[in-house]
């Protein structure tokens, strides 16, 4: 599997996990896609759930 496809798949998973958080699906998806999935994980863990 190519590294780019692995990065996109990890970004999709992070977006799905963050769909009920502060930035929502698209925020975490683009954050992890533009930076790295590792940064996306840190952002996901640092954000509170949406009220």
What do you see in this structure?
The chain has 51 residues and is mainly alpha-helical. It contains three helices and no strands. It is elongated. The model has no long low-confidence stretch (mean pLDDT 91). Keywords: Membrane, Transmembrane, Transmembrane helix. The chain crosses the membrane at residues 25-46.
What class, by secondary structure content? mainly alpha
Helix percentage: over 70%
Could you tell me how far the N terminus lies from the C terminus, measured between alpha carbons in angstroms? Answer: 38 Å
- Taking pLDDT < 50 over at least 5 consecutive residues as the criterion, the unreliable ranges are none
Order of helices and strands: HHH
**What global shape is seen?**
elongated
Q: What's the rounded overall pLDDT mean?
A: 91
Number of helices: 3
Number of domains: 1
How is the main sheet built?
Answer: none
Transmembrane segments: 25-46
Keywords: Membrane, Transmembrane, Transmembrane helix
Layout of SSEs?
Layout lengths: L2 H15 L6 H11 L2 H10 L5
Keywords: Membrane, Transmembrane, Transmembrane helix
